[in-house]
Fold:
Amino acid sequence: MSEASVSTTWKHPDKIRPAALPGAVRVSTALDRLGRRNRDLAPPPAGSSLKPVPGNKGFPLVGQTFSFMLGGPDFTRRVYDRYGPVSWIKSLGLDICLALGPDATQSVLVNADKAYSQSGWEWFIGPFFRRGLMLLDFDEHLLHRRIMQEAFTRPRLAGYLERTDELVAKDVAGWPEGGQMFAYPTLKRLSLDIATHIFMGDTTGEDDAKLQTAFIDTVRAGTSVIRADVPGLRWHRGLLGRRVLEDYFRAKLPAKRATETEDLFSALCHVETETGETFSDDDVVNHMIFLMMAAHDTSTITTSAVLAALAANPEWQERAREQSLALDGELSLEDLDKLTVLDLVIKESLRLTAPVPSMARKAIKDADLLGHHVPAGTFISVSPWFSHYMPELWTRPEAFDPERFAEPRSEDKVHRYAWVPFGGGAHKCIGMYFGTQEVKILVHHILRRFRWTTPPGYVVPWDLLALPMPADGLPLELHPLS
Ligand code: HEM
Structure:
């Protein structure tokens, strides 16, 4: 790799946590060392050639919860260095098997023996997003996915693009003429706006506010510390939010069924597979609530990561702008294909800041994970974030270096499961093209209107406790193009 192809070193998001919580990684390391009590997860059955899953129990009662929460990715790397790609930790009261690196990721996501269920997600988001596509398993999941796929065909994507383009162009045109802007809340509002309009179609201003609040409450509830229905607390607000969303979608269903319109809600009411399968009313409601969640947070995180990376790497910002300025008028899918610099930048941003840093599964029968015996009932965590920073896979993994995805380097091709921001296997993100399209449209319009910078030496304080989020809102200095 030539030095010239490497841009300014990206300030490694792992190093952010100590900035936000001074000494957190040091405390995590010390706790980890103090609480280490090596113990295998469970012995393999007699006569089995499998090895047990190695790991340690940590402290009595709390296990490694604090080492894990404070140390984040640094902790995971220590565990990998000590035990290898398959190990276990005790955190949040659960025995969690860590499946780290591309081989373990592949084995779990491909799920050849159907040993791993999506019910691993149930614990985190089940009450608020029940029966969303990601929470279904096996044959039932495949059937629902086949039906939903009809809402994401190329002609439908072209329709969503047209309306997203219109909405974003209008919104960005209204941004202040210059000065400081907090990118994260602005993008979050905008992407929620996109989701309500593109997904739901004909909302009124009043519905928008009510739905957005309900929606934010359901998303937040997943990260509640107190996971019980106590009035006033997050969990309770999440349950109320779920009810508001259900009532809204149910009330609108008859009209959506009666006349086909161009939004996703209508699409789900009318899609049909070649063999005539369709969604029931309950299915449509459950899928809509999940889709809203799956779409908007991930797009906001990705767009924030791209804007931060382009601020820190102005030469890439100029390269991307050149292609955006070369396009004029309304965007088409073919236009988006011409934004090849943004393609590389988005891929690299998704590597450095995977919006879904880890994926949950649960073993529903005894499983063989890379030669280790994983007992039924164990929670599994698959970590794109970990794989994306493995020096075994990536040249200078901490550097922002979009060229790594271009020929001839194609570092992502080293292993099919090296770059996995959208997951893999049967549950691979169904909104991958829609999401990338939205991010591209957003950045394209911002590139055409502004140059943007961050203060010298700025480091994004990614908060990694739930989905990654810039703890400071990501302040950008906007300079309108003359
Ligand atoms: C940059 C944006 C996005 C990222 C990084 C992302 C990431 C992911 C990941 C990692 C999964 C797999 C979860 C698992 O295996 O447990 C997933 C699944 C899913 N995503 Fe996305 N997503 C994005 C955008 C979207 C959008 C825009 C939509 C909808 C329009 C969407 C809808 C879904 C759905 C329905 C699933 C479940 C698929 C299934 O279980 O078959 N995502 N996403």
Observations:
- Residues 133-134, 145, 291, 294-295, 298-299, 302, 355-356, 359, 421-423, 427, 429-431, 434-435 surround protoporphyrin IX containing FE (CB under 6 Å).
- Residues 281-312 form the longest helix (32 residues).
